[in-house]
Amino acid sequence: xxxxxxxxxxDHASLDLGDLDLAPLRQVFGELVLHDASTGxxxxxxxxxxxxxxxxxxxxxxxxxxxxxxxxxxxxSATGTNNIDLSAARERGITVANCQGYGTASVAQHALMLxxxxxxxxxxxxxxxxxxxxxxxxxxxxxxFPIIELQGKTxxxxxxxxxxxxxxxLAEALGMRVLYGVLPGRPARADRLPLEELLPQVDALSLxxxxxxxxxxxxxxxxxxxxxxxxxxxxxxxxxxVDEQALADALRAGHLGGAAFDVLSEEPPxxxxxxxxxDIPRLIITPHNAWGSREAxxxxxxxxxxxARAFFAGAPIRVVNG
Length: 322
Known about the structure:
Elements: E1 6-9, H1 23-26, E2 31-34, H2 40-46, E3 52-55, H3 62-66, E4 73-76, H4 86-91, E5 95-97, H5 104-119, H6 122-130, E6 154-158, H7 162-173, E7 177-181, H8 195-198, E8 204-207, H9 221-226, E9 232-235, H10 244-252, E10 258-261, E11 283-285, H11 294-312
Parallel strand pairs: 1-2, 1-3, 3-4, 4-5, 6-7, 6-8, 8-9, 9-10, 10-11
Helix pairs in contact: 5-7
């Protein structure tokens, strides 16, 4: 392989808003070609002559990999690798490495923001002030929407990895009691409650687990019915973890104190989504941007360069298809 490898970043604009320092990446490669975005069809053409492909969400399937005989390394500028055919890459001797743990602080902070916004009814009070309700009030304050004090309340967490643990520590700092649930297909543990025992106890439930066939629609109509009528539901993990129609129905029916999601089952939601209807009360949706602080995105740049350097040194790290 050349001592000055050529790398092509297929969807650079998904990471860099013009605010990142790409010097760590440029120092690794003899040439770094940046494309704001690429379709799957464009990928094969743009990767000609490249030893390294960098992709966030651009799909690299077996046919694309076959069309790029010089490709030796795929760097994923995210944790999820569902857009890469990992087995096809392995069969062709192509190493795939991802980024890990870069957004822990950012996502935990975002989840806390969503929890606080729901508990304090922030969107409702903002809308009331804009509509002139405070200006017309008969007293100095407006208390039209019930506010929940989180101290002493119980938070349930599904997915006690790095992100779930970081959010738990923030919640405990607010004086919340934290309980953990066991995920489907995982072995029973003394410190994890079965879902049917966890859900009735919690005042808020936060999802931090991966989306698998076992966790798809982990929270559906039956599980929502087990939650307390005032419970809050947070999802900063993956949209498919929750039956979105069931949640929309539950919120319309007045069951649940509110929900806040940073993820949907289709992103972007070009074909509509039941949770985007205008008549759903006590629902906050953010556009999958919990991970996107400048600091977190700069960490991705650092990890991409670390992964590349390690590969060329003969000791690959963060390999996901080994």
